[in-house]
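Bug #77: duplicate submission created two jobs. Keeping one. Sequence:
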Amino acid sequence: MVTEIEVSRELRDLGISRLAWNKEKKGLRMYVYNSKVVPLICHDAEDTVKKLRESDDFGDSDTVEKIAGKLLAIWLEQGQKANDDECYDDDEDEPKKKVLMRKYTAKGTLPLHEAVIIGNESTFVFLSKADEYRPQFVKHIEGSGDRDFYPPDTIDTQNPIPYIYDSVEDFKKYIELAKDATFGSLYTLVRKCFVKYVNVEDYYADILVADTVYSYFQDKFSETHYNIFVGDNGSGKNSALLFFRHVGYRVFYGLAMSAANFYTFLGDTEECQGCIAEDEAQDMAFDGDKQKVIKGGYCSGATVPKVDLSFGRKQDAWLTYCHKWFALEELADYIYMKGILDRSFVYNFVVGEVDHNIKDTIKPGGDPQYKELQDELNHIRKLLFAFRLVRYDDVIPQLKLNVRHRNEELTKPLLRLFSYRNDSSETLEKIRLALSKFLLGKNEAKKNSLESKLFEAAKSLRDAEIKEHGEKESYESPNELIHTELTNIIGWLEIQGERAYYSPEIGKVTHARITRLYKSKLKAESCLIYDPTEQKNKRGLKFSHKILKRLELYYDVPDEIKFDHFDHKYGRTEDGRGSKTDDFGVPEDKSHAQYASDTDKKTDEKKARPSTGSDQSDQSDQSDQKLIKEELWHCDHSGCLFSCARRSDFKMHLSDVHHIPWDDQNLPREPKGSESQ
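Kept job's structure:
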């Protein structure tokens, strides 16, 4: 614990700006400041004199001796008193630091605690799941170590907007509403409100609305994508940000933010304390620190280390991970924003008609119509918050998609969230198709990048080499041949006398940069290649066949996102024989187990049927076998998404994963002593 020491006029005249006692486990310490960032830390009177004489920061020898004499007197007069003072008594607990926190789970060891205002009172709330989601309110949370956590919001808090409920009864009402809500119903509710204020393409709205709901569950996932709005004045960018601010999860909204604004808001204790929405964000392409925070903050675990020198050296790690939206009038060149764009979906906004201006809704000025719209925003926000509390502890199973790497990281969280409860099939299909469109646009931009063109040239030269000499572990190409192939692909012009090329799309590219990119991006190696025609060695590059095959996976991206794990039929569809089916292709008048049993019986009947040997019978059998292969066993137990084409595999899945045995009638039955599931 730190206690200030009054600095006399004589010491101030000698350059001492601050003195303090610090009681530590190792004993009493004196901190001596002279307007320097780092204080002089002294263990006792003798140590104080010694360190002053060794330091070059306290003036000449006469000044140092004067300072030493006065500090020695302080040690003799006040040191023992400070050491014996009750505030330093080792038998007494030192007061804990008061840390403001908006949400806290102690790394999953506590129920989700959320800061909320009930009436005019700031408190934490969590739900007692064992008591039918009954809300529990606490004034603070006892943390480990030397910190306790307190809610930061008051009725006057402006940014982010606090969650305010009129009373405990009002809060309980929203919990009851949240119990009956689904991700699909909330998506529909948010979308209906969103389109009143923002005029964008349907697939733009699909993702922005889904992201608004997703923002309440961002801390359940390890990655997120960003949304970047680009457009002229009046195009609706700001309206989209303001909608997100008022409906999204604890959105910190601002203009021209710095890197420090980002990680100060997110804190150093628990990730995803809220979301960030920044307007006029043009500087993110050129602000190095801010760009690093944005690029690192799309996934969990990224931190900004900072050293606190107030009392010694203490290193803190400030968090950066959360969902973020940005708006700017014009994108900088791709070369300056490559890392950010690789983590983002870009929305091109244009001017359009909307039903209402959201700024009028935020400040209705007493107008009854806009007051009703304002109440609608607040209602949706409070319902989403309650839904987060109700559904936070749900298990969200993994999905396997046909896209990989960064594309998978940007799209999978949304698809996992809207699929795990199997109650939002139409919404999930909209999101899947919208994400596919965004990936298609990102892939086109990727294919037009310089790195993609370099890969295309290397691949073309490799394919020609394979056609002529067969497949090898590596391939060597002279620089001249590589540059010729690049010219054919890009169509750029050589700048005479500069050993460089130019194209309007890519700009100026030097020979040295081409070689450098080949080595860093494609892991090429420099080599000398003998030219028998000119009878001399030429400089070139050697490419690994294995590396080029791996890079093909990066640049060859599917045009549409699909699920790899199961044959997912979204919504109510026809099964091909006139009967309605559920989300997994099972007729709605049958359980999944009965469907599997019927399929087994069909299989046994086909095996028992004698063969006639006729062509017509063979064709019929082949058709029946094809139909049987299309019959899949499905499981949606506890949100599990699983399908298989063999009865034995399905039985093993039920047994190993859900501990449900298979009885003699080929129907799953519950284990003895368990509750019905």
